[in-house]
Amino acid sequence: MIVNQANLRELTVGYSAAFNKALQEVKTDYQKIATVVPSSTAENSYKWLGQLPDLREWIGEREIQHMDSFGYTIRNKKFERTLGVPREDIEDDQYGIYSPMFSQMGEAAGLHPDKLVFGLLAKGFDEKCYDGKAFFATDHKSGKATFSNKGTKKFNRDTYIEARAAIMNLTGDKGDPLNLVPDLLIVSPSYEQEARETLMAEIIDGTSNVMKGTAELLVSTQLAGENADKWFLLCTKKFLKPMIYQERKKIKFTQLTKDDDMNVFMHDEFLYGADGRSNAGFGFWQMAWGSDGTVAAAG
Description:
Elements: H1 5-25, H2 30-33, E1 34-38, E2 43-45, E3 73-75, E4 77-86, H3 87-91, H4 99-122, E5 140-142, E6 145-147, E7 150-153, H5 157-168, E8 184-187, H6 192-200, E9 203-204, E10 207-208, E11 216-219, E12 231-234, E13 243-256, H7 262-267, E14 269-282, E15 288-295
Parallel strand pairs: 1-13, 7-15, 8-11
Antiparallel strand pairs: 2-3, 4-14, 5-6, 8-12, 9-10, 12-15, 13-14
């Protein structure tokens, strides 16, 4: 191919099309567990976290709920991926070998929110949420009571029942039930069989499975490897979800292909990339229960 600006524009259109097609076709899961919040600044402050509003009988004056008890902030981060295409490969008609790489880049861009949200979920045993404690902790305060949303046992039917009861027994700062019912179980591929049996089997060991249909199942490949024993039970049907995905700038495709671009002038290389700004954070700990899976479960 003759390397001129007209041909480069046509080449860029092809690379961009491969990127965007893969980006649009990616199937993601982060929306199931994260509230998507648009951002217009370097960081967002979530002062309202810690407030689970409920109605009270109006006796006397209104009781004002102040939304500045906690100062939880999510700062946006920049992410990028850049590929270089040497001029010689274009001149020698080898530019087509790069198309799969741009498709792969588009797929990675599409999966980026999943990577952020599920990666943070797995770190929830150490990373702090709005109340200054780890998202999954044994000593969260709600009013005068202390609650745990953290377990240590590996997944089985009995530990699932324990986790479900823990969420449903939560009360608010006034001692009233929060009426939270978990609806999504997340496990790694290592526990897919046990999880499917718990939520889908009609009979287990000759006994009717009363837990059938009590939650949907999400087998997350994001939990493969060192996080394989971790599992989570979440409430995701509320307006607000347990996690937050904050998006400042959507990932977009860019290029540096002009003759006077420094990379072209100095290295005879055309650069194509993708970049965006976003981050993930924790929402209400009350809507999530997690186990690090460090202890063998009974049975």
